[in-house]
Fold these 4 entries.
Entry 1:
Amino acid sequence: MSDSCRSYDILVWGATSFTGTRLIEYLALNSPPDTRVALGGRNQSKLEGVKQALSAKHPDATLCIDAMDILVGDSADAARLREIVAKAKVVASTVGPYAAYGSELIRVCVAEGADYCDITGEYPWVKQMHRELNEEAVQNNVHIVSMCGFDCIPADLGCFMLTHYARDELNEPLQHVKGSIIGIKGGVSGGTLATLVIQIGIERKRLWHKIKSTLGLKSASSKMASRDTNIVSDKRFQRGVIHYDDSVQRWQTFWVMSMINTQTVRWAGQVLDYGPGFSYAESMSAHNLVHAIALAVGLVFGLMLMMFSLTRKILYALKIVPRPGEGPSEEFTRNGFFSLNLEGFTQSGIVYGKVSGASDPGYGETITYLGESALCLAFDRDRTFQPGIYPPSVAMGKALLRRLRNKGCQFDVGRAPIPTARNANEQDSKKKQ
């Protein structure tokens, strides 16, 4: 079916979820005039309730919100799912865990010729979908774009940006990019935690290797390099999980999203040919060595508690972590931030990048990333877009990067370290003044 025959530009699937409701709000306030948006989910009354609540909150956007149709269906009902998806140019899904609820939706999107985006961080599931459906997606000219949230757009598009800059300025490919989260403040939703629990189960072997490296202060990057002959083995790029970084002048420690971001960036690097043996590593800054060790041990201990149902129930009961369907308040979201420093190495030089956001990375910046990804697929698609099942940089590349910059998201690059005037720490301090 051609796009001109479809009733909607964007279908938000999972519209009653914590993230889905905020995505609808974003689209209502930021979409071009006459953008046709539909709300999809299982419960008619809850979907109507979302519209009513948003209309009351944003009276000026009432006409736009009222124009959003409701499409009721279930991921388990393939026939109804096909009927719904066939009406949309793009499906933006917020229904996770995606390995449990997203596979059939992607199969239907590929079969019906609808583009798709989501915010999963479930890398093994995305690769499984790629192996199963990529060939058919390419044949049908369909773009299935997962990981369009905080995991993994900052790292993914950041390295994409650095690669093009290195080629333009130095006429050389990248060998390695080092990422460092130098500042972050954000909350987490119950749905994200539920997804994380499943992800931990899937990646328990990889996580266990990371835990041993963290607690033993051994080099995780060197172990991975020895197992993968496609990754540069230069000693400059082999650092311990806890180490001192001369560039940012801070101790570095284990960053939980590094496992997802590292795999995603390396995948994009292979597809887009960033450079022979290209590699990526990511860590989080700490105030000092003691803080670095405390962060790593605390994070590992927290992940271990979430792996067992009994301890999860205790954490839920004590309200230490949110239940599925719960998430950070709007005030907390507005006061969040993050800043990612990037340092890219070529054969003869170094290029620098910075990606930052001035709101909660998981529920402020992520909504912007997902909303603009959906709009990009709906309105910007051209021959530069690569069909198939790929990360955002591969599928949308420069078009999405341009959109995010136009929305005020910082994606800066240069030959020297990026000035701190726009970094997340200063953004946070300005908010407090």
Entry 2:
Amino acid sequence: MDIVQFLARGRRVLLALALLLPVFSAVAQVADTARHMAGIKEVELTDVEVAPQAVDTKGWLLLDQDVQQELNGAVHNLYNFKFDRADRQFRSLRRRYPEHPMAYFLMGLSTWWKILPTNMGTTQYDRTFFAYMDTATTKAKKLYDADKHNYEACFFLSAAYAFDARLHAERHDWRKATVSSKRSLEYLDKSKEANDLSPEFLFGQGLFNYYAVWIADEYPWLRPVLFFFPKGNRDAGISQLRTVGKTGFYTAIEARFFLMRILGSEREHEETAALNVARQLVAEFPDNSYFERNYAMLCFREGDWANCEQASKSILAKLNAGLPGYEGYSGRYATYFLGFLMQYRYHKLDAARDYYQRCIVFSETLANTSGGYYQGAAFNLGKLAEADTDLRSTKRYFQMVVAGGDRTAPSYKEASVWLKGHK
């Protein structure tokens, strides 16, 4: 790897680190010193705790219990993908507090969750999303300029810039992503004096503690650069995310969402714990396609066939009904799981073929045919065709497996061997 490649890869991973810190939690962070590349100034994330009474929080909607009670239904609607209802409630908040950033940020967050279920593939909401986050930063900056100790303003500045950076990074606009990340970290640093005001602020600290260790382990070539960042703590990070998931308000669902992903990752191998989190999320937000498809996947991994089947059929029913967030990605998961169950659990081979073929259609429609469920569906169709001595179909499906498949997968190797013997 030459130095240009090193810096290019390092910039992206360091950007990921910067983005992990401030999403929702721009106030409480870890000790030590952090530096960012490309001229970003040194950011000292000192672990300073200030008693709540030492900070004037008058007018802070973030800590206002009445506002939390009012928005409880709106936040639930957001994560249950009832976007129209949630947005109406957020607009009502905007009418009453037109100069406050909260409503604009929440409407931007609502837009973010319209993008997420597409694996960030859709761009139709980008302009709206960036507009909401830009307005949130403008309103928050005005509050901050009026009072340099308005840490709530710093919270929204850091969070809004972080989300802005995240989407620019997804769109590979590294210049804009880096600029927004720099600004997010700067306001994160400014807000360090308000660390102990709310459990909400543990969210970013928990993410940093976990992912700082993860990045150092997964990218050992970056360790010399990561020397300039605070050290993470895996166990503390997971514990903090659990705490926020139980006691937070605005950040609770995001914390549980990350817990589900972290615990179910190859690194942690705690699928049972991840499944428990996913089950809770689906029970509370049954129409969130992202939660439901991850629940189905974790059930599949854990061999919970009955719940996997139920969730997969639910996904397809909601997709057919046109519910928000239920689209090709969710359909791809569900049809593969159902095809597998029809083939191996119920031995209903015609039904299995139908589901696998639908999985392939979903994958091709999404232009997502490199490995994964597409490769698995094509391989299983090939095996079914081979059992029927339909060599023409077997060859066709196995060619699909090797065309863009994962070369390390057993299905790729078996399909390759078969094709070599049937030229």
Entry 3:
Amino acid sequence: MPFDVTGSPSGTTSPSSVRTAGPRCAKKRPFNIMSTDENPSAAPQSLPVQEPAKVLLLEGIHKSALKRFTDEGFQVETRSGGLGEDDLIKALAGVHLLGIRSKTRVTARVLENAPSLRAVGCFCIGTNQVDLVAANHSGVPVFNAPFSNTRSVAELMIAEIILLARQIGDRSREVHCGMWKKTATHCHEVRGKTLGVVGYGHIGQQLGVIAEALGMRVLYYDIMAKLPMGNNRALPTLNGLLEQADFVSLHVPETPETRNLINADAIAHMKKGACLLNASRGTVVDIHALAEALKSEHVGGAAIDVYPEEPEANGAAFETELQNLPNVILTPHIGGSTEEAQEAIGHEVSHSLAHFETSGATTGAVNFPRVDLPPRRGTHRLLNVHRNVPGVLRDVNQIVSDLDANINSQVLATDNNIGYLIIDMEKNVSMEVSRRIAALKTNIRTRVLY
């Protein structure tokens, strides 16, 4: 297991990128090195005896993740609910890997007070519950599951499009209340109707494919150029899409640009009687503007799964202006809440975290330079996160040269704030090299992985 030497997090700007790597070999797990009393320049140095990596899983994360971590030999603690900031800081004492869903907030204060934390896994698509900038500056990569719940969300959107087209929510509620109201007024087939997808990522593309199979015409808008699936067609502007779509489905991340993306002005551009669906982020829609449009019947229906403010626990009271409005389907953020999706998410994120912990790989991290260096047999692996300023690699190489160390493999990747360096080197000097690198003013954190 790793030996840590951690410095103080900070950041600056000086983007660059360098990558070199040795030949690929078969993956192997970290191993123990026998100790020696000889001169470190002449014999392998011993690594301190380390406890297994400690993992904290919150919010009822699927048991598939627990199995992966226990199979790796990690110590795992699970909790069914989320934690507030103070309780999370206490719970993270000695924890190396943290797994959360959407309720737990990993703030800059949490990161500052969790010196042993090495990585965070968001067992969902969104990562806005983590301060990604602070995590980056602290040398903590954050992983998520961008693919695993795609089908579940897309299927829910298809179901809600049909439910809205037939006003099933209202008819069901009426029958539950003892009222019989059989009518075809304002009820339609979805075949031949136009679906507008805002945000053409994994979910938007999957939704477009299924909708087209139902006979719908699919338009999409995205700020990036995307390859259309099937006969899906891109439009150059959001308003152009809103003016043509019978159903508008939102699949965008939470960013300053998407906040209140669907506001009163955008709603005014929608076709009269069109329906709005949102399973992306609650801040994307101006709820008051939507409620007013529903009351005026400019918008013919809505299916909302996410809200600007959501309860932190099941059973909590919840209010929204959209309650009790006609042809409105309200669900409690369940877009990806299927057993299949949660199992797949458990596998996906636990794999990323375990791969990072055992090899230093950051492939799939959302806030970190991405590196995946194959292991080299018979070496020690050193991981270093540092401020991205000129001269760091020079200083590191000078340390290696001064100790007459031989580097077997080395890879460096950077972003605007930090550099992430992996070095496979001879065993006889690895601990001394790590100590000297950790003493550099540019160091954020350094550890010998194995």
Entry 4:
Amino acid sequence: MLPVVEPPPFSKPKTPEIIIDRKHSYFTFLKPYLSFHHRRTWFFLSVLLLQLLLLLSAPSLPFSLSADNISSPQPSPIIGNPTTIKQGTTTVDGISISKNPAINQKKCPNGKVYVYNMPPQFNAEIVRNCRNLNPWSSRCDAVSNWGFGKPADRISAIVPQNVSGAWYWTDQFSLELIYHNRMLNYRCRTLEPESAAAFYIPFYTGLAVEKFLFTKNATGEERDRQCKAMLDWIGEQPYFNKSKGWDHFITLGRISWDFRRTKEGDWGSSCIHMPRMRNITRLLIEKNHWDYFDIAVPYPTGFHPSSASELKNWQNFVAGRTRRTQFCFAGATRGFNNDFRGILLNQCHSEPGSCRVVDCSGSKCENGTSTNAIMETFLDSDFCLQPRGDSYTRRSIFDCMLAGSIPVFFWKRTAYLQYESFLPSEPESYSVFIDQKDVKNGTSIKRVLDTISKEKVKRMREKVIEYIPKIIYANSTQGIDDAFDIAMDALLRRFKEQDGGYKWK
């Protein structure tokens, strides 16, 4: 739940002239008593000293002296994790404020970010309504702990004790909450919009539309309503109108195609096609490769280390893991003819000594019920097969790499044309590509993998493990440059580079 915090009332400090006049009046009154042997002398000297200290401390009083700030949009309050306050913070009136000077004073060469304090209907109320976000089940566990979900207690059966506390049952569609929390505590956040290079819109777009995506007979108007309301609100903000949205960005916690409906009766919302959304940059778990304003960021996994040492412990663990299986596949068929996943499963079942399968048919892999089995399979395998999911991408890519397993791709749009800032620039250094057409025509996956030497497998695994920090979302604002930091650096650099260039209106 996002607490709504009202800004402190504006008040004007007393001017130095008034204080000086008071001091003069005190001098006149005290003149008959200015003897150091007189008790009243010591009393009034103490009062004078106290007023002098108050005068000297006035510049640091907790209110603004600038009248310009009154008419500026209100910044979103600085909030920490709603259930646990991270180390290095102090709490004032329920608000978690960073007190680490290294974070607050670190230079931001590409500028700072202003976080809008939006009406609660766009974020806080959506979380409060977590029981009704999905037509089949409650989403309250998924949105808890700022999108990390509940702690993964059972994971301790397969991972070391020194990292088990970093694991959560994280939902793949929780990106909006995770980014909002990190933005509120971001080292390059500013509370002054006039000094911002970028503006963040904390609207939980994916959570807001989820119910209507899966509710039978939901209308296009219902799927578009909250996005339209958000754009109406943002359209009234002076800094949005100043730039026409070119320096604004938003997190959409689902794939791009869920927001690209072009006509009534088709799937999804038409949010991305609405006029005011045109110039707003979108961070999504899967982008439209041909849309400049879409930026793909990694799916959330269940691993959220709170320190660099915890991250290093995990990397050491997966690097030293003995892998007994050559390749694996976690998934299920889609139930139609020529289903590519069915072909993969058939190849796996025909090589029982080399391939391991985790059956995810039905709801067997939902809500963390098979997380241990999936993670243990990835930890035990040199390679993991990664076909496209319901769209071109799938969260399993990142679960696989997190376990130090080498991904095998069959479509270039599954990773190579999606997550350029987060994965190595040379695909062959960390992955294997086998065209899905070749597999359909009878190419044996095992025979392809058999051609890769043990030395190369070792180098590829080392590269995968090296990139683990870049594909996770840490439970910390310091010590780890994670997927959030990489995304923000790339975003701010883009805004800086496009500043002054040609922009359509």
